[in-house]
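Why this split exists: single-chain examples teach little about how molecules sit against one another. For that reason, every record in the complexes split bundles all components of an assembly together and asks for one structure covering all of them. Below is a record exactly as it appears in the raw files.
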Amino acid sequence: MNTPDKQRISLVERLKKQVLEQKREPIVLEKSNTTMLQCPDCGAGRAKVDGLTHCAYCGRQLIEVVLNDGINITSKDNSQ
Amino acid sequence: MSNIFGFNKEKKTDRDDKAQPLESTSAFSRFQVFLAKLDERAQEIVKDVEESAQIIADADTDPYKRSFLQFKSAILAQFTQIIQKASATYQTKVIPAARGMEMLEIAPFYGDWNARMVDTMQKLFHGVLERDLEKEYAQAMDEYNSAVHTFSCMQCGAKLEIDKFYFQSSYITCTYCQTQNTFNPGTKARMIEHIVQPLARARCRESYQLYKEKKELTSKKDAKKEFHAYLDALIDEMNAILPGMSQQHENYRTRMLADFENEILPW
């Protein structure tokens, strides 16, 4: 049996209570940051002028993808 | 979903109906009483929703307002249930029971009731501000602008010059040692890509209103100039919010213009 108090709570009130008490998985917000890729063999950094896919010093392949024209990168940035 | 109306208790209702003398009242008057009761329940929900909806939307801390959307869909389901119940009763009980020319009165009455109820349901959440996009955008940009000045080159330690808004990970070249640093703008900046259209539309509301007024006064064809002006303002806003995507925004303009010229589409 519902108590008189329970009966008085309207449908909208019940739904309101239910949704506000609902436990949700928190959304993890990632902060802005910078990273850098160094050649694992010789430790050299990458420079756009030398091409981004291979180390300019020892020739080791740094990324496997072939770059194509995008917003900030163009196909010219592939290492020759 | 809880069923407050006892809609699934049809068998019991049938028996109750049979127990009453059917001939005592006309199908129309019984249907009017039934719709009035449904109307009363709907109005109770509307009243409560008007009081609670904005409070729930504001209290919901989830960035996508999932709790509020859950509440909204539950209320809309209740409204749909009311409309469906009226429709089922009309189809299965009222039409077979109507005598003589009674349907001439009942059909428009039910049609009006149904249209009014659907209209109420559609407008129920119109006044509720779910997400303040302008505020979200301002917050994200503030965070971005204060963070971009703090980054240094990972190779030589020189200050990195991030002079424009990047909404996706991008290579930033150190002006001193030419090293490529990968800059990740963070989740909030990334999310701006998803709000660019609604935000730009909200900012261009006035030019859209001008187009809409002209269209109503004349015709869609005659309001072409206003529509172009609205699109120009919209694309400019989108380019200002999300630089680097002008080509995609131009594609959007082309599609909108093609839709406008397409006479088959109703909008």
